[in-house]
Amino acid sequence: MFTIPAIMLTSIANASKNSNVEKDAGKRILHQQHCDIFNIVEYIPKGKNMTPIRLDKYISERTEYSRSKIKELAAKGKITVNNIIIKKSDTKIDPETALVKVLGTPVSVSKYRYILLNKPDGYISSTEENDGISVMRLIPPELRKKGLFPAGRLDKDSLGALLITDDGELAHKLLSPRSHVPKIYIVKLDKPFKSKYIDIFSGSILLSDGTQCLPAKVRCSEMSDKLAFIELHEGKYHQVKRMFAAVENHVEKLMRLTVGGLILPEKLKFGECMELLHKDVENLFYPPDFDDFCSDFIGDFSAFMLNNQL
Ligand code: URA
């Protein structure tokens, strides 16, 4: 069993301290996640003379509910603010201190949503469904909202960490080739790893169509010569598969383990999602050193691949 990445520990520690919803009403919201693994605590800052906003605007910006639906739910007494039923959806609330619930489910205090999905095989990283079933179907209803999209791409048969957000600016920063946010993958190879890959990948390898890649780090697992870890600083189409094809090997399975400083937690099963804390979102831009990551996690992720026959 591998240890849970440090970035998740705060969430877990906070969650275990708060196993019931809103221990500290008005200050904390505890979301019971769909996957029932991580309970994410968000802190509502103390009110600082915020401009009040309409309840229906607040909810519609943070959920999938339309203003007319919100009006209907409010009239039926299904919306509470700080545990008081509010029947008029145009009521003004303080967005900094309000603890809003619709049908008993807390509405996220954050305007933007950040979700980490452990992508399973067979889903496409797109909001459209022209080429298959979208990963968006895996988002549980309580985390759904308008404008969410996958910030990055994993092939239909690839697995692992996929960030889903409605924060276009963050997604742009994360995906821009100029940001060089690294991503680490574990791959199962068809043929044994060769040590010459380390030098070849650390140069600027040419793909079969003449595409030149940025230098990448690669390392073989000690548990199997057909398992390798690779860190990329860019995301060209089928890049990992094409890089191994360029050295006459073949990727049979690929799982993304990190996106910047975000490490896929072991307990997040394929197809499950968790909402990220702002701190975790900031961590996206503080990636682990590849060698440190490998020292800490190579055995655990290798064992995971072998045990699950991936
Ligand atoms: N590289 C690939 O070849 N496929 C992916 O899904 C991600 C990176």
What would you say this structure looks like, in words?
The protein has 310 residues and is of the alpha+beta class. The chain is built from eight helices and 19 strands. It has helices spanning 6-17, 55-62, 67-75, 168-175, 196-202, 239-246, 278-283, 290-307; strands at 28-31, 40-43, 53-54, 79-81, 84-85, 92-93, 100-102, 105-106, 114-119, 123-124, 133-134, 149-150, 159-165, 183-189, 217-220, 227-232, 251-259, 262-263, 273-275. Strands 9, 12, 13, 14, 15, 16, 17, 18 and 19 form a nine-stranded mixed beta sheet that branches. Strand 4 (79-81) and strand 5 form a beta hairpin. The longest helix is centred in the last third of the chain and has 18 residues, at 290-307. The protein is elongated and about 70 Å long. Uracil binds at residues 154-155, 158, 238-241, 254.
Taking the sheet with the most strands, its summary is: 9 strands, mixed
Shape: elongated
Going by helix content, strand content and strand pairing, the class is alpha+beta
Estimate the mean pLDDT confidence. Answer: 84
Strand content: 15-25%
Provide a concise account of the structure shown:
The chain is an alpha+beta fold and 310 residues long.
Topology:
Blueprint: H1 6-17, E1 28-31, E2 40-43, E3 53-54, H2 55-62, H3 67-75, E4 79-81, E5 84-85, E6 92-93, E7 100-102, E8 105-106, E9 114-119, E10 123-124, E11 133-134, E12 149-150, E13 159-165, H4 168-175, E14 183-189, H5 196-202, E15 217-220, E16 227-232, H6 239-246, E17 251-259, E18 262-263, E19 273-275, H7 278-283, H8 290-307
Parallel strand pairs: 10-11, 13-17
Antiparallel strand pairs: 1-2, 3-6, 4-5, 4-7, 7-8, 9-13, 9-19, 12-13, 14-16, 14-17, 15-16, 17-18
The structure holds uracil.
